[in-house]
Amino acid sequence: MKKFLAQSYIYILLVMLYAPLVIIVVFSFTEARALGNWTGFSTQLYESLFTGGMRNSEALSAALKNTLIIATVSALVATLLGTISSIGIYNLRGRRRKAITFLNNIPMLNPDIITGVSLFLLFVSLGISQGYTTVILAHITFCTPFVVLNVMPRLTQLNPNIYEAALDLGATPMQALRKVIIPQLRGSMLTGFILSFAMSIDDFVVTVFTKGNQGLETLSTFIYNDARKGGLTPELRPLMSIVFLTILILLIIGNIRSSKQAKNKKK
Amino acid sequence: MADNKDVIINIEHVSKNFGEKVVLDDINLQIKRGEFITFLGPSGCGKTTLLRIIGGFFMPSGGKVEMEGKDLLALPPHQRPLNTVFQRYALFPHLDVYDNVAFGLKLKKEDNEVIAEKVTKVLRMVGMSDYEDRDVNSLSGGQQQRIAIARAIVNQPKILLLDEPLSALDLKMRKDMQIELKEMHQKLGITFVYVTHDQEEALTLSDTIVVMNEGKIQQIGTPEDIYNEPQNAFVADFIGESNILVGTMIEDRKVSFIGHEFVCVDEGFEPNEAVDVVLRPEDIYIMNKVEGAQFTAVVKSCTFKGVHNEIFVETENGFELMIQDYNHFEPGNTVGLIIKPADIHVMKKECLSNVFEGEVSAQGEVTFLDTVFDCNTEGFEVGDKVKVDVAFEKVDLLDHKEDSDLRGFVSFILYKGDHYHLTITTEGGDKLYVNTNDVWDKLDTVGVNINAEDIRLTKLEA
Amino acid sequence: MNKRSNWAIPYAIFLAFFVVLPLILIFVYAFRNTGGGFTFQNFIKFFNEPEVFNTFLYSIEIAAYNTAICLLLGYPAAYILSNNKLNKSAITIMLFVLPMSINALIRTLATVELFDILNVALGEGTLIFGMVYNFLPFMIYPIYNTLRKIDPSYYEAAQDLGASPFKTFTKVTFPLSMPGIQSGITMVFMPTISTFAISEFLTNNKIKLFGTIIQENINSSFWNYGSALSLIMLAIIALTTIVTGDSSADAQKGEQTV
């Protein structure tokens, strides 16, 4: 009985949490322009989304392209920068290590709006015209800490003798890094990349502050503008469904990977 | 010396500090070609540090290390013609057994066929044929150990360094691997430098043992030398079981201890020189009759230890001795004891009393060990440099370290039959020796007190 | 080997340039007027402008409601999820965590559509409901994490010493889960104040929260005033961190990675 009540409570909360998402997904498969009006199953909205039948489909495909480019570049740079820095931080001791770890935590703890405002001020006071570059730099700023967070623990849990063993067997320090250390980090680097990619696609606030006014739009700012013009365009329902599913899949992969790594750790 | 052809590694005046801490202090050592040499000592004695200096993972703070007459320190680890077996194997987890073993050969860009041949051969040698494709994480500790050894020796190093390679294995496995290591050493004919804290392992495996403690070499010798002729109380205590007793060398081949005079084989001491005497517990003959015995004692306890009995006796004048014998002796019985001359090992005492340099800092006060002590300074001027002498028995140790200006911890304990001989390391890093009947534990923090009348001063010439 | 530590240098410079310097700029801009001179005017304006100041107080009020409701709804959920007897599946907690990572804006728009279908008039009620919907996972997860890490032998010990299940909860479980609660409060309270755009969508532009005010000012080129408002928000963040005693940056890091 107790168990039944407890389970029911959990399921009621889950239904509440997912209801809006489910409704969007469900009503993306019907033709009706108005939400809540089921007129039978149809993929017409999807077709219209992809064939450019909606009123500003060109802007949408541009936004989609921008989002993917920004996410790919930011996640790649963040992964590289984060990995190299993790190796550096790992070899640091004492106060310097503490200082850089502290700084690394700041972007993770700051609310998005503070990150957004502060980067906006940086770019305007340096007179950098805002656009692609500034958005990518901003995304690298909030993604890299998560890469460090994923790579660092893997690095510390490596047997320190492994690096020495490689040197001992005749590898130069660079070879030891390439042949022994990097292969060990590959998993956590990939997890870091996936997380960064998902966070970049997902970001709205920081992008709004750093995209400038030259007409650069990403998916989230596009949706924001569209919604502000008075209700969602119906074609955005399939788009949002796709975004949900993409992010959910990325996160499920990321989560399974991290928990696998956690299990290996225990071995 | 370095041009001696038998010497493969020559270590001169090597020292290593980590910050303030001295880990190695003026190490001088020659390693002979082809020998199995073991660095033996308690944890923190510097043995692993010395091995890592040879391997190239630490640079010494001073001194030189040569291999076959060439400066080894100039070479980074990957260019040194030697290989290491690490304590926790350090196999590369992303590579299978074959690729782990082939790692060094591939870096040297050898032919794939040659590599395959060498790997197969070395895997057969360590008894791991057919394991080529296995994931190293799926192997047992003993198997990983074999792969680690194979990975090192496949490169045909001139020297194999082994850092406590058996410490992670269980007892049975350890014994088996000891035999295999010994056989492997004979088969390969290369120099093995082995690090362990296990004295039994060292005695079983080594041609030469280097006993180390607190960053210094205590004794270098064959296992027999080290066991039978320990050079100081630390070695005697660390290697095997022993009774260490205070004695006096009356004349050549005559020593007195536990209130009796014994014939021994040692010569070359001053008449009546104070010495330490080492008796191995298996070297004391114990019998139920007292006729024909050199002295008698009462059995305090007798415990069966599997092969032998461990018997504690108390002599008629109050000294406690440990004896090992195959027979059982009933506690409370009086027994007769005999010690043969060759079984008495006489060691020179390292020092007879605590000697420090100090300065008369005020009338009635002397400063040494960075501490001011009350003292009779009659006949000295303020500012005089003095030699301070304090007998071992006259140093008081206090539980309440707040009550004393000089503090330290117990760094070494030796039981000498009727009292304990302690080494106290002070906060300033100096050593102080204390004889006491009180029981202290190693690493206890203590306060040190010395009474004014127990401090003897001698003027040092300026 | 030691030279490897140099590999941290590019990132250190990056952090200095893109994290530290921008935060310093918030300070600098907050105390400057449009001419570039030093001034307190931006802060004085904040207190003297009823619209902004009231929005600020109202945001705190909404955040407080939101936090309280999230705690009331979230604690039992976290407790049930962490309890092996009541919940055996690891997937359930993942289902709770996943929405955390979907953009709050998109989730909000979806919620608004839901209200629309249900014919609920948008206003303060929907605002609070929408916020709870957005932030509940951020309350559940940290509490769940702390509860799960508690050694079950504590419960057994408490029961062994004669505590009833209820007493065990009030005297043992609840106090031990405090760090998670603190973490949850910080993770719900602060972002509620700082969200922008969300409250407008949820109330059909009837209610604005503080984050929106900041965004509007920056957007309309009132950089100095916007910076001063951001600085005030930073102060509130610092204050909540001190009040809840949540120094566990590590806990939050862990939560956000998932």
Please, could you describe this protein's structure?
The complex is a heterotrimer of chains A (267), B (462) and C (258). Chain A is mainly alpha-helical. Chain A has helices at residues 2-27, 44-51, 57-90, 94-109, 112-125, 132-157, 160-168, 173-202, 205-210, 219-228, 236-266. Chain A has eleven helices and no strands. Chain A has one domain: MetI-like fold (Orthogonal Bundle), CATH 1.10.3720. In chain A, helix 7 packs across helix 8 (173-202). Chain B folds into three domains: 7-233, P-loop containing nucleotide triphosphate hydrolases (Rossmann fold, 3-Layer(aba) Sandwich), CATH 3.40.50; 241-348, Nucleic acid-binding proteins (OB fold (Dihydrolipoamide Acetyltransferase, E2P)), CATH 2.40.50; 354-459, OB fold (Dihydrolipoamide Acetyltransferase, E2P). Chain B is 18% helix and 40% strand. In chain B, the strands form six sheets. In chain B, strands 6-7-8-3-9-10 form a six-stranded mixed β-sheet, with helices on both faces. In chain B, strands 13-12-11-14-20 form a five-stranded antiparallel β-sheet. A five-stranded antiparallel β-sheet of chain B has the order 15-19-16-17-18, with no helix packed on it. The model of chain B has no long low-confidence stretch (mean pLDDT 89). Chain C has 258 residues and is mainly α. Chain C has one domain: MetI-like (MetI-like fold), CATH 1.10.3720. Chain C has helices at 9-30, 41-48, 50-82, 90-97, 104-118, 124-149, 153-160, 165-176, 178-194, 198-203, 210-219, 223-244, 249-257. In chain C, helix 11 packs antiparallel against helix 12 (223-244). Chain C is globular and about 70 Å long. Chains A and B meet through helix 7 and helix 8 of A and helix 2 of B.
The oligomerization state is heterotrimer
- Shape descriptor of chain A reads globular
CATH-level-2 architecture of the largest domain in chain B: 3-Layer(aba) Sandwich
- What's the name of the CATH homologous superfamily of the largest domain in chain B? P-loop containing nucleotide triphosphate hydrolases
As for the number of domains of chain B, it is: 3
From the 3D structure, determine the CATH topology of the largest domain in chain B. Rossmann fold
CATH class of the largest domain in chain B: Alpha Beta
Number of helices of chain A: 11
Rg of chain B, rounded, reads 27 Å
Counted beta strands of chain B: 30
Mean of residue pLDDT values of chain A? 85
- CATH superfamily placement of chain A: MetI-like
- The share of residues in helices of chain B is 10-25%
Taken from the alpha-carbon principal axes, the silhouette of chain B is: globular
What can be said about the biggest beta sheet of chain A?
none
Q: What is the mean predicted local confidence, pLDDT of chain B?
A: 89
> What separation lies between the terminal Cα atoms of chain A?
38 Å
Structural class of chain B: alpha+beta
